[in-house]
Predict the structure.
Amino acid sequence: MKVMLVCAGGASTSILMKKMEKWAADNGVDLEVKAYGVSAYEEAWKGYDVILTGPQIAYKVKEITSKVSIPVAQMAPMDYALGNAENIMKQVQSLLK
Amino acid sequence: MTTTEEKKGFMEKMADVVRPVGDFLSNEKHFASISAGLMATVGISIIAAFITIVSTVIGMFAPGTGVLATSLGWEFAGAAQVAAIINIPYTMTLGLLSVVASFAIAYNLAKYYKINQLSAGIVSMLMFLMVVAPAKTVVLADGASTFTGLDTTLLGGPGLLTAIIVSLLSVEITNFCYKHGWVIKMPDVIPPFLANSFSSMVPLLLNVFIIYGINVALSMVDPSLNIAWACNAILGIPVNLLANSVPGILVINTFALLLWTTGVHGTMVVYMFLMAPMIMAITNNAALVAQGLSPVFSPVFLLGATSCVGGTGNTMGFALLCAYRAKSEQLKAVGKASIVPGLFNVNEPMTFGVPVVYNPIIAIPYILNGLILTFIMWVAYAIGFIVPGHILMLSLLPIGLAEFLGTLNWRNAIFPWLMIPFMTLIYYPFFKVYDKQLVEKEQAALAAAAE
């Protein structure tokens, strides 16, 4: 499964990226996750299964949705803040259903 | 869940006012293109900054002028010459920043209009060069030989406002041509790359006619007038009012922090507008330092006061308070998750975990400390404790590092660290109140679960 994380500059989502990678390794889940800044997702989204955005770019969700053909959703602020990989993976699963 | 219900009405009312402004500013195509275009110059400016640092260090060994040569006797005879050689890649990158911007802004705006980006970029860049640096032939000192060259004065930082206006205007003209079918269309058998090069011919012609025409018309009114003068006069008014005045920066910083409390990335929004004045102020200082003069202060440098101590809202100390002094489980968990990112000036875990967003109790110190630090920083510049930057540093770096690399001054590096206790103190009373509220909520939730 390939998950794209998008935030303003790709810095804070890269913290989350590490946590999700660790969670996937611990739980034996096949997961590829990468963090992008809001200016870079458009060139890179093809090949990903889903895009999750940081809550600080909520105003960009509509624009992102219009430019890609994969599911896009905003992460819950608290899951994002604490890097709760388990909850975020649940969200990914529900998006892919 | 985590917001205080009784004040939620106020926060939401404020969000209704502030948020649409932020949404508009960050999504409007011209502003977004300026921002994306200027971002394209960041990589260049970082390499230029690296070159400046190397040539500054080598220059320290120059006999007679270098700091290390005069103070410690560490001389290196060819230092000045080597520094001059190393400086050329700097002059020809940062010194041409506005040329790059004139291409990149047009390239990005063309994307919104869905017209050929490459030809829009090329046309815009040519128009910019045509109006700010027309080739001139001068007779050299020997009185006989001549030299033809481009005046580079406005090709770097000083021409940035002109580059912005010319590239936006140029793409509008180009788009007008496309929308009205004023392009030479080739039969389908012609390969696309060839057809594209023909399609930019009419837009370029009309661009020359209008933009160069305006330039010529202005110079006919008075030889000293031109588009660059007009752009600086028009854009200079808002820029001087907001970016080049301390009260203006206070307003901007407040706005950025207010936006964050409604969940919009406020610093990114205001940076779109302040990137140009910031680049101009720093490249101006770079030129001064290269001449051996002192860099000068510009109010736009106070922009960093909102976020230099652990991310926006200067939350480093607040994160430590949460991690080690909080009684509520929520703040403890958020605080611990926020310390390491905070050292790198990243604080989204705090913003969305505390949360700062839609939280009136924390919004007060969050905004207040940025304003107080703006003032302290201003004083620190005024008394010379910290020095104005002359190297463009736009990347996210650990606390103090960007300040050091931008100035090569150790006092700038320690300044944000010195501010941690003070910033913590501002958060403390609000942290206490909020932590107590959360503990009560957590206990109520536990009691409810036990029943």
Notes: The mean pLDDT of chain B is 88. The radius of gyration of chain B is 26 Å. The longest helix of chain B spans residues 410-450.
